[in-house]
Amino acid sequence: MTQHDDKIRLQNMLDHAREAVSLVHGKNRRELESDRVLELALVRLVEVVGEAAVKTSPKCKRDYPFIPWAEIIGMRNRLIHGYNSIDLGVLWDTIEIDLPPLIERLERILVKSQ
After folding, report:
1. How many domains does the chain have?
2. Which of 5, 20, 61, 62 could, after both became Cys, cross-link 45 (CB 3.0–4.6 A)?
3. In the annotation, is 16 catalytic?
4. What is the span of the domain harbouring residue 25?
5. Span 14-26, pLDDT tens digits
6. Which one is catalytic: 4, 25, 62, 81?
């Protein structure tokens, strides 16, 4: 995998994380439970963040140990393989609590690589 591929994967992670955070802006947790389309959109966006992380090279993961790779990939695995029992509270917390700092870290990485 080339450095260019890793940059694309990191950009994909950033774009999809931003979109997930944007979709919940101004909403509350209860709205997630009552809006199936929102739920499906958020699940997919977080899955893509995880899928891009899976495809990122081992070198990239070593270069950026402050990215919680295992947790991101673990969430992707839970969403994809446990699709029939998604804990919406965990999904909500991931988007509200975990994605904003991830976005900041990815932005710093990508600015440096320009």
Report:
1. 1
2. 20
3. no
4. 3-112
5. 999 999 999 999 9
6. 81
